């Protein structure tokens, strides 16, 4: 991801001026839409937080005309094996839809897909260490599908494999007293 370092630095600079919810409405200037979009679609956790804060306060950003619609993980399950991927897929949709509307999608697709993977990985990190490998495997599969197909499309066989992996890990953990849970 070194090729995005300059963009990430610029995005962080933009985020520092646009993240605060109170100042967001005051700072709303649709002429900086591209900079705001770039700030909200980086792989960094701070970018995710800024986007999510804006998502929760969309009225403050209405003048930008962002497309907040989502179909979450498209044709793949939003919560495969109980792992909740909805917000990661929602942000991915946000990036795809808004860069497409701006005519800038091809130049940003790779980063948007890498951002999806970063978001999914951070989500997997919130799960118990026993089942985390199954979540990580699904996150990688969703990322690869988005990268190759333009949207997450996971086969039933891949979902069944992750479910078996999760269940096997839970069975092993239940059989081992004192097994690590975090």
TrEMBL record:
Annotated spans, Disordered: 153-182
Signal peptide extent: 1-27
This protein's record includes keyword Signal: yes
Superkingdom to which the source organism belongs: Bacteria
Pfam families: Phospholip_A2_3 (PF09056)
Keywords attached to this entry: Signal
This protein's record includes keyword Signal: yes
Biased composition (Basic and acidic residues): 158-174
Name of the protein in question: Phospholipase
Organism: Paractinoplanes aksuensis
């Amino acid at each position: 991801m070194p090729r995005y370092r300059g963009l990430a630095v610029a995005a962080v600079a933009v985020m520092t001026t646009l993240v605060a919810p109170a100042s967001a409405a005051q700072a709303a200037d649709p002429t900086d839409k591209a900079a705001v979009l770039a700030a909200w679609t980086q792989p960094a956790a701070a970018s995710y937080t800024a986007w999510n804060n804006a998502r929760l306060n969309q009225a403050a950003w209405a003048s930008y005309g962002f497309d907040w619609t989502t179909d979450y993980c498209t044709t793949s399950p939003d919560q495969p094996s109980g792992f909740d991927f909805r917000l990661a897929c929602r942000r991915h949709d946000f990036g795809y839809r808004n860069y497409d509307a701006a005519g800038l999608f091809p130049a940003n697709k790779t980063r948007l897909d890498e951002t999806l993977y970063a978001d999914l990985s951070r989500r997997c990190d919130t799960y118990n260490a026993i089942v985390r490998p199954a979540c990580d495997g699904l996150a990688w599969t969703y990322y690869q599908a988005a990268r190759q197909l333009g949207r997450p499309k996971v086969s039933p066989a891949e979902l069944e494999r992750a479910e078996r992996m999760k269940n096997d890990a839970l069975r092993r953990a239940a059989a081992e007293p004192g097994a690590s849970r975090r």
